[in-house]
Specification:
Two copies of one chain form a homodimer. Chain A has an eleven-stranded mixed β-sheet, sandwiched between helices. Chain A is built from eleven helices and eleven strands. Chain A has one domain: Isopropylmalate Dehydrogenase. Chain A has helices spanning about 15-30, 40-50, 70-80, 85-90, 105-115, 150-170, 190-200, 225-250, 255-275, 300-315, 320-330; strands spanning about 5-10, 35-40, 55-60, 100, 125-130, 135-140, 175-180, 205-210, 220-225, 285, 295. The interface between A and B is large, with 69 and 69 residues.
Chain lengths: ~350, ~350
């Protein structure tokens, strides 16, 4: 049976046309996906008319748009007919199985929490970011949903990210590392030192603290951190990669010989860029909701949207939330999360 | 008058010979520096015998070594005749003007605090890391000394790093940014939101929050963060840069054409690597002490040590500590730091 995924077409920096192209690419690649696009009807129809026809595509017209700079809580309260709000409302009603959005990630999280609620036992939903490394992908969680965390939250990020990694890459016991500034358990800030004990006593395959430089070595599958640190790492990595290429280009353009050399080597550069392109990874799942949501980069192109849609379908097909529940159950530290019912009352908590 | 700098020759991953070579390079470059090398006398003499003779070089023999994995507080208490402890003891006695060490940074900080104490008004000394960016250097502080911080500490990091940047790069009002996960003052974790107000009301040239991706753009001179986040960023950047080069090399080696291209472009690669080489920056000053200490990377080569020694001399010559005192005075938030006399009782506080 086809998995039915909703696509919020309104929040992207690259415009609605690119979102629609992403949906078409997903339908071309998989015949077991059905897609509903939410957004401005006329624009969606116009964009669709430039592609071959597909039966598995639907439209839900919406009239409002939540902007990147909108305050998440106010926006989902005030903009009831926005693509993000309607998407989660209809997901709750069972109209589809998952939501994919490149829009305001705080609003996606707030709408997810409001309409779907949290998975039982999970204290805080978070965003799981996928990175390329020298050997394979690594999941970092949280990369921006929770900026002030307690050890229990980080412990749950470890569980959720492990379940996600298992499902996506067919690995029964992903290696879980705790992001810190030294390998010994006593190293790190107060939050990390307390979390270390929780993870050590859990049923996860905890390999101990990892440092920033281990992130890209590929010797760890899941990296646990709070959403402030995770988001800083995410943006630092993007910025550094851009800066390195820009400085390298600068040096190469200084001599004719180097320019010639670059021309010969440029396929290798292109291959490399493909290998580290975020678009290949297709968005970051919002884990811990009683339902499935994927947050795509605001700059997502069609390829990234396609991959986001396919990842959403995969998570549904493989029941990632059942895996999370199972891991919570087998673990000894199964908190019921009840001490943390506060559903994101502080706007500063969302990146 | 020559500035007299002490060099701890025992803590480096690359061995004592490389440290001694660094001292010789510094003496070759500057005739207003005098250097005392602390460490194993026989080894130092053997290393010196391989270089031309200089008058401005001295030896203080020490018999103990603080290892990278030693607990800082225990080590400086137990290893009284280690190069790090003797260096700060003699600095306190006025035998020289500054200490440069590539050893256990926690022990350097602990010894600095024990023998020199804090600058009046500074709540916590911290480590100021210099990064290359697309336009020029940026100072990030703290990069590892204080993992659990209060707003007042971050505020003082801003003051100290500004004074350091002014002195090193002759810029009267360095642009100070606060590392966060969104530009608006309300974005970030609780620590960052509170610090934002302190910096905004200060006499520093505060340009607001900056994000990870701004770090390498060169549009900010000083980036303020806690030592946990700063240390994660430092190691993540190192790891990512290494991973990018390694993956690129991997792609380039796959085809003959690309290999030829690389050979033609390799001078550009070398230029680029020189531009971003940490060794060009020569170590991270430990600011906030009542004296001057420079922490060099454990993997420092002779070039990095030379630059560390010259930076130390520059800080003395330009009275960086007077600049810090001055900035503290003109600022409205001049805390006297007295609420934080706790001199690093927790080992986990040091990276």
């Amino acid at each position: 049976m086809a998995v039915h995924v909703a696509l919020d077409a309104m929040g992207s920096d690259r415009g609605l046309g690119e979102m629609v192209s992403g949906a078409i690419l997903a339908l071309q690649e998989s015949d077991s996906i059905e897609i509903t696009i939410l957004g401005d009807k006329d624009q969606i129809l116009a964009a669709l008319s430039r592609h071959p026809k597909f039966e598995n595509i639907h439209i839900i017209p919406t009239t409002q748009v939540i902007a990147m700079e909108d305050s998440p809580f106010e926006a989902i309260r005030r903009k009831k007919d926005s693509s993000i709000v309607v998407a989660f409302e209809k997901l709750k009603q069972g109209k589809f199985d998952a939501v994919v959005s490149p829009g305001n990630s705080g609003a996606v999280l707030a709408a997810g929490l409001k309409y779907l609620g949290r998975l039982k036992g999970i204290s805080r939903p978070g965003i799981a970011g996928l990175y390329p490394t020298m050997k394979g992908p690594v999941v970092m969680m949280d990369v921006g949903a929770n900026v002030d965390c307690r050890p229990q939250h980080l412990y749950h990020f470890g569980i959720m990210a492990s379940a996600f990694f298992s499902v996506m890459f067919d690995k029964a016991l992903p290696r879980v590392g705790l992001l810190s500034i030294g390998e010994e358990g006593g190293k790190g800030n107060s939050l990390v030192r307390k979390t270390h004990h929780l993870l050590k006593d859990s049923s996860l395959h905890f390999i101990g603290n990892v440092e920033g430089r281990d992130t890209f070595q590929g010797d760890v599958d899941v990296i646990v951190c709070d959403g402030f640190v995770g988001n800083v790492c995410l943006k630092l990595s993007e910025g550094l990669a851009e800066a390195i290429f820009s400085m390298l280009k600068d040096e190469i353009s200084k001599t004719f010989k180097a320019k010639m050399g670059y021309l010969l080597a440029r396929d290798a550069f292109a291959q490399f860029r493909k290998r580290v392109d975020y678009a290949e990874y297709g968005g970051a799942p919002l884990l811990g909701l009683n339902g499935t949501g994927i947050i795509c980069h605001g700059r997502s192109n069609a390829l990234a949207i396609k991959n986001g849609l396919l990842v959403a379908a995969e998570l549904i097909r493989k029941n990632v939330n059942d895996h999370i529940r199972h891991l919570l159950e087998v673990s000894q530290q199964t908190g019921d999360g009840s001490e943390e019912v506060r559903p994101l009352s502080q706007p500063g908590e969302i990146a």
